[in-house]
Amino acid sequence: DAEITQSPRHKITETGRQVTLACHQTWNHNNMFWYRQDLGHGLRLIHYSYGVQDTNKGEVSDGYSVSRSNTEDLPLTLESAASSQTSVYFCASSEALQGTEAFFGQGTRLTVV
Amino acid sequence: GENVGLHLPTLSVQEGDNSIINCAYSNSASDYFIWYKQESGKGPQFIIDIRSNMDKRQGQRVTVLLNKTVKHLSLQIAATQPGDSAVYFCAENKNDTGKLIFGQGTTLQVKP
């Protein structure tokens, strides 16, 4: 079955380190998204991509970057991790932009100490 | 600003009763709404969706109602079961961009 997977599931890193979270989907969806989930804020959009070589900033993009070199992967990089980036990160993909749901991965819990 | 919000952070119901979870949105231009269920330690899971040209849509044990006049969305779960215990989010597909704006979530607790 097609799926979307994130790795690692849990990570602890130190302030100032560069961290990359992986997201891989096998649906061949063009559209991929990264969200973060914090208590009291629900899910907020970090970055998104509508296809290979396309990347766009979301609502809370400061301190994050993404790259899209192929259809299946959208890695999320924290350039210099900060304690404010301690959160649960979710990757999602969707087949179309109109009238279809997004499918979410299981999430990565990141702790910055 | 644009936001999708839920009225109650926690809803506690008796097993077998019906549950109603509410959501208010502010972007009148939005035309696609989704309800997600999130269990502990998992990602959001699609439950049901509705387009703005509809007032009601039914699934298996779930119904979504959309009132565009007051910009209100609700999720009704019939005969609530322990497996329905989770956090429920409404989300708005902003201007058909695929970008989802989420509410803060309602935790549904089902008492046996």
Write the topology of this structure.
The complex is a heterodimer of chains A (113) and B (112).
Chain A: E1 4-7, E2 10-13, E3 19-25, E4 31-38, E5 42-51, E6 54-57, E7 64-66, E8 76-78, E9 87-94, E10 103-104, E11 108-112
Chain B: E1 4-6, E2 10-14, E3 19-25, E4 32-38, E5 45-51, E6 56-58, E7 62-67, E8 72-77, E9 86-93, E10 100-102, E11 106-111
Parallel strand pairs in B: 2-11
Antiparallel strand pairs in B: 1-3, 3-8, 4-5, 4-9, 6-7, 7-8, 9-10, 9-11
- Give the helix proportion of chain B (percent range): under 10%
Low-confidence stretches of chain A: none
Largest sheet of chain A: 7 strands, mixed
User: Helicity level of chain A, as a percent range?
Assistant: under 10%
- What structural category do the secondary elements of chain A indicate? mainly beta
Would you list the SSEs of chain B in sequence order as H and E? EEEEEEEEEEE
What is the averaged pLDDT score of chain B? 90
Brief account:
With 113 residues, chain A is an all-beta fold.
Provide structural commentary.
The complex is a heterodimer of chains A (113) and B (112). Chain A has 113 residues and is mainly beta. Chain A is built from no helices and 11 strands. Chain A has strands at 4-7, 10-13, 19-25, 31-38, 42-51, 54-57, 64-66, 76-78, 87-94, 103-104, 108-112. In chain A, strands 2, 4, 5, 6, 9, 10 and 11 form a 7-stranded mixed beta sheet that branches. Chain B has 112 residues and is mainly beta. Helix content of chain B is 0%, strand content 54%. Chain B is globular, with a radius of gyration of 13 Å. The A-B interface holds A 31, 33, 35, 40-45, 48, 50, 58, 90, 92, 94, 96-99, 101-107 and B 32, 34, 36, 41-46, 49, 51, 89, 91, 93, 96-105.
